[in-house]
Design a protein that fits this description.
The chain is α+β, with helices and mostly antiparallel strands. The chain folds into 2 domains: about 1-75, Butyryl-CoA Dehydrogenase, subunit A, domain 2 (Beta Barrel), CATH 2.40.110; about 90-245, Butyryl-CoA Dehydrogenase, subunit A, domain 3 (Up-down Bundle), CATH 1.20.140. The protein has helices at about 85-120, 135-165, 170-195, 205-215, 220-245; strands at about 5-10, 20-25, 35-40, 45-50, 50, 55, 65-70, 125, 125-130. Strands 1-7-4 form a 3-stranded antiparallel beta sheet, with no helix packed on it. Strands 2-3 form a two-stranded antiparallel ribbon. Strands 5-6 form a two-stranded antiparallel sheet. A hairpin with a 2-residue loop joins strand 8 and strand 9 (about 125-130). Helix 1 runs parallel beside helix 3 (about 170-195) and helix 3 crosses helix 5 (about 220-245). The longest helix has about 35 residues, at about 85-120. The chain is flat. The N and C termini lie far apart (about 55 Å). The relative contact order is 0.12.
């Protein structure tokens, strides 16, 4: 293998880390192969940990840049079989995306709590911030969005538990889009209420926003999920129409 990879887990830099999984990107689906590569293999060089919006990437799961220069490993290091790398990745992406959404709901709850604390104590133009209608509406809309997203997350989790990963594809894609957008919006409202302090390191909101915004890209960008949702919805509508005939 000769390549540069910038999406490996932060555990790569742990002093006890010895082996990393690497996926060979050679086209679509059946052409991907997952291989175990010992870190001490000649040609493997750890370059640097990555950052997101200038923040430590550890909060996002952590990613590392690694160079592979003519790295050779035995064929027995292939996981599950040649061409099965996509299957391995997809097997964890469904539950993994759901975990992202669960964390997004918790993050939004924390952001709303901070927003309300600031709005209740800070004054502007002779009254508390929450007494200004625009801020009061932000609080209400954030609560509505959080509850909606939590229920959609529970629905996706229930479908995954009872029907399996494949049957829950649409529900997981829906919540993946909704949760990232919701968390970004709630944190953004909190930042606006805090003003300049909200984008400083004196409060956790800047780091929270970096995490929330990253969710709209991690494990598949929103646009890919939206296209998948549309195709799955059209499939379901077609099946319903055929069932009525």
């Amino acid at each position: 293998m000769t390549s540069t990879i910038q999406a490996l887990t932060r555990e790569t830099e742990h002093p006890k880390a010895e082996v990393i999984p690497v996926r060979d990107w050679l086209g679509r689906h059946g052409l991907h192969t997952m291989i175990l590569v010992p870190l001490k293999t000649p040609g493997v060089k750890k370059i640097r940990p990555l950052t997101v919006f200038g923040q430590d990437d550890a909060i996002h799961g952590g990613h590392f840049e690694i160079h592979f220069d003519n790295v050779r490993v035995p064929a027995s290091n292939i996981l599950l079989g040649e061409g099965r790398g996509f299957d391995i990745s997809q097997g964890r992406l469904g539950p993994g995306r759901l975990h992202h959404c669960m964390r997004a709901v918790g993050l939004a709850e924390w952001a709303l709590e901070l927003l309300c604390q600031r709005a209740a104590h800070r004054q502007a133009f002779g009254k508390r911030l929450y007494q200004h209608e625009v801020v009061a509406h932000w609080i209400a809309e954030c609560r509505i969005a959080i509850v909606q997203t939590r229920l959609l997350t529970l629905h996706a989790a229930y479908t995954l538990d009872t029907q399996g990963n494949k049957a829950a594809r649409k529900q997981i894609a829906m919540i993946k889009v909704a949760a990232g957008r919701m968390a970004s919006n709630v944190v953004d409202c909190a930042i606006q209420v805090y003003g300049g302090a909200g984008v400083s390191d004196d409060f956790p909101l800047a780091e929270m926003y970096a995490y929330a915004r990253t969710l709209r890209i991690a494990d598949g960008p929103d646009e890919v999920h939206l296209s998948s949702i549309a195709l799955l919805e059209l499939r379901d509508q077609r099946r319903r129409a055929q069932a009525k005939l």
